[in-house]
User: Fold these one by one.
Assistant:
Number 1:
Amino acid sequence: MNTRNDLFEDKLELRHPRATDGFHLNQLVAASPPLDTNSVYCNLLQCQHFADTSVAAVIDGKIIGFISGYLVPNDPETLFIWQVVVDAKFRGHGLAKRMLNWLVAQSTTENARHLITTITPDNGASWKLFEGLARDWQALMAKDVFFERERHFANQHDDEYLLRVSPLPNRPQESLAHSYSDLRNSLGLSPSRRWLD
Ligand SMILES: CC(C)(COP(=O)(O)OP(=O)(O)OC[C@H]1O[C@@H](n2cnc3c(N)ncnc32)[C@H](O)[C@@H]1OP(=O)(O)O)[C@@H](O)C(=O)NCCC(=O)NCCS
């Protein structure tokens, strides 16, 4: 009997998105709270302009997972992960990790040394995903408040924490001391603030 993992092995395709994926991505995000929904136009742009730094997971022609990302315009060594989504039917089977590992192994992201993303405090699955990746990659993590509930969202949205994971796997190694000071500087952290193990 085929299990879901067998289906992954047999049929899963990971590829960069195409503009024609944008509408389906919009539906997948809309069905995946607590993600912020986007306009179809925004998702079309993600699939067109940010295709090189994004990944679609497809089974039988249907998008079941997606990661949108881009290289930060004034810091092209940093890959920003915008949204990660897996169809509810396919969660808990390592797909989000597979997509991220695939994305950071592509030539289109090879110059990126760091990953950043933003996460709300209560999105446990998202924290676990990035903590698991940092563990697998033996990378360092740092976090700080990025967009604040009152200041940036007029109390309409929870705080968004910026999480930085560095270095990405298979990048040139730097000394631990350099990596720590680099992370600290990038977030403007004082030595004692908000460090994660
Ligand atoms: C977050 C999400 C993308 C995870 O997708 P997934 O394919 O189920 O994740 P994976 O199976 O690759 O799991 C990765 C790690 O996170 C952990 N994890 C995933 N979901 C979890 C949950 N709900 N609770 C606790 N841990 C969880 C896994 O155990 C795994 O840990 P490991 O590295 O120690 O093995 C998926 O739950 C989702 O689409 N949620 C809705 C949208 C969302 O919140 N996106 C994240 C914000 S950008």
Number 2:
Amino acid sequence: MTDDAEAAFSAVADELRVRILRELWDADDPLSFSELRECVDVQDSGRFNYHLGELRGLFVEQTEDGYDLRFAGRKLVGSLHSGVYTETGGMVGPQSVDGTCVLCGSDLEAVYEDQVGKVDCTDCEVTIIQTGVPPAFVDGREDDLAAAIDGYVRTTSRSLLDGFCPTCSGPTAGHLAENDYGPQAVVNCERCGISFSGLAAWVAVDHPAVLSFYDDHDRSVRDTALWHLDWLADAEWVDGAAGDRATVEVRLDDERLRVTVTDDLAVTAVDRAQTD
Ligand SMILES: [Zn+2]
Ligand SMILES: [Zn+2]
């Protein structure tokens, strides 16, 4: 972070300025100087003008129609609404989850605790899914945490695989790697440096060939929770040894679909056949 970051944070380190930003967020249209001052409810015009001036440029713009939030201002107020800077603690669950542990077969449970969402085994140490989430994540989703965690992880991983870092929006690049669980998909952000890794077969979850395979068998891969996609853990290296291609087989009824994931995490060589 640079001096620019310090200047930006100090520009909003004031309760009155945050109120100005929130009022502009709540307004349907740009506000004139006097309308905005009335909303914020500050009598002293000079003081108000000073604080508004500190926000102009990066967070607030003045157009012919009045004052409005710039992109940075909307991002800032949006992150205040997410609760990520203002709400610590908090817990929802644990709730029982439809599904069983891939390792020991015991029941699963979902829990939200202090900006972390998790689907865990109730018996062994396996964590099926763990993800950082803002407090707003549980808003209205308290009754089905498991579905919320499933949806959130799919959304962020889709963004990563499509080339957009969910943390900073910078470009991402992926490759295959080996670990104890077999082939892994590793995605790095080229801007902020954050790194994510998951099972290689994950890359195929949203692939059109997989979607239509499920569809042809009257099922929906999108409506199937990740912990019910048992093939996610089954990817193997092509030719057995760790290399630049991994393959996984999806089986439904009397048919199988084999997809191959290349080193840059593209899905190629889709092969579909009847099983015996
Ligand atoms: Zn277990
Ligand atoms: Zn990033």
